[in-house]
Amino acid sequence: MKGICVFFMAVLCFPLTSGSSLYAQENEVSFEMKLSKQKLGINERLRVEFTMNKDGDNFNPPPFEGFKVVMGPSQSISSSWINGKRSFSKTYSYILVPTARGRFNIKQATIEISGETYKTLPKTVEVTAAVDKPNDQKTVDDVADESLHLVAEVSKGNPYLNEAVTVVYKLYVSPNISVTNYRPLDNPKYNNFWSQDIPVTKHTAQNGTYQGQPYRYVVLKRVVLYPQKAGKLEIEPLSLEIFVDVPTNRRDFFGGRIYTQASKTVSAGRRTLNVKPLPEAERPADFGGAVGDFEFSVSTSKKQLNASESLQAKVEVAGKGNLKLFQLPEPELPSSLEVYEPEYDEKVRTISTGMEGKVANNYTIVPSYRGKYPIPSISFSYFNPKTAKYVTLSSEEINIEVLEGPLGASDNAVTSSTNKQFVVPTGKQFHFIKLNPNLTKIGTNYFFGSNKFYLLLFAPLLLIPIAVFSFKKREAIASDVVGNRIKQANKLARKYLSTAKKELGQKEAFYVALEKGLHNYLKAKLKIETSEFSKEKITTILSEKNVDVSDVEGFISLLKNCEMARYSPFSDVQMQHDYEKASEVISKLDKQL
Q1: Which domain holds residue 522?
Q2: Mean pLDDT lowest for which of 28-42, 146-160, 312-326, 452-466?
Q3: Sign of CA dihedral 252, 254, 255, 257
Q4: Which of 77, 82, 341, 461 is the most buried (most CB within 10 A)?
Q5: What is the pTM of this model?
Q6: Is residue 475 part of a domain?
Q7: For this UniProt entry, which residues form the secretion signal (predicted)?
Q8: Close Cβ partners of 71 (under 8 Å, ≥ 6 residues apart)
Q9: Residue 270 sits in the same domain as residue 297
């Protein structure tokens, strides 16, 4: 019995022990150095690979004493899901050529993974005399590694906040091989940037050089970034799987060279931008976050008109810069003019150097009384990164003259006092009164006592109940605070999302307008600038305002959808859903703020 119990205890305990060890193995970090061989001739090549099972940063290779690096580092990433388990592998590869005979020690390489520093074990390589037939000449993978390089060219490494930065991804290919196809493995997210992809319509190969050697290159991707946060910002790498045809030393029956297909993973690597904040010194009080080189104007469609006619006043900013990321100044118009909500007009295109075009607010103005109405000068300030100075532009004062129409109360008083005339005596101030007026009777139908008389007499009494009912109805509506808030919130949501509604069905234009509407709403409500606009900042501010967590998460998810829409397909149903969700979220936020 004792033996049977021991047996069952062993059977029950064994799966638990093996399962826990398996879990530990899956979560254990592995970082090791692999050599293609530990003994080679001086005319042979050595391939060194540093492989890890988790992604890391700050990789430092050993000095490779006694060898010359002829290729590398080339980076490859492999990630897959098998039976619900993720398999990840990242490798840095080098091709080395020995410089002398002897025994050489390849020292440790280091890398940081999850805040910890890991090191490889050193290994010894023996280099002998040259061999007659080197068995480690360039392999297909070696040729592919040497011949493919993905580079991210950044136009500026230390831009100002909200200054345009262009990133161009170029694939350099050696003339020795040919690329048949490629597919993206990992697209960068561009966190803390406002990004706009510039479509590459044709992948035309051009001649160039890479590290002094002749290469052909193809532009695969262009993107314009506007940093929304100061400090060091990282641009995530772009990773591609490239399918190539590599020539071999073999020939076919007709003497043609035989090619071998291979696939390689290339990455552009991380790039870091040092974003400078806008200077605080000499910053104008009316600065609204505009960065670039602009022109500013205020114009009207008419300067003379009649009362109850309308005119258009346009506030316009044109030039190059972050045209979609700031608010236009508002004109100060006389209170006697009826002014409607402005209609936003945007004609902006994004090229390789950034946004250019113009944005404008069109105001419809309707005067009610005749007279002269001045539209005072307004100013617009922006920061020019080329000169590193703030510039303030002011518009000219515009006078609107209303020619015909009723006079205002103040105008009547002035007119009556100024139009007084003295009566000049003519010598005929007194006349005789006619004694026989020749009056006639008007008839027997008298007004007093008629049906018309009684109708007009009792009509006001009939209107009293109607007036009381109307008053109570208006009072009930006014006392409905929640209902009024809902109506006001829905009206506000329609105001900020009107442009997005017009663009339903056009994915890019819709999500740009939706993102701008969400930005403008928060800037109007919370008085925050574009430079402070990040999802973390929004979450913190809304939480401090005691906004429900679900509403905050809904707002943040909308912003994420706007970012994802630039590189992901979105259906019309999804756009309609996001529009309705944005209207609901703005309404809820407005009631709480």
Answers
A1: 481-592
A2: 452-466
A3: negative
A4: 77
A5: 0.51
A6: no
A7: 1-24
A8: 94, 95, 142, 145, 146
A9: no
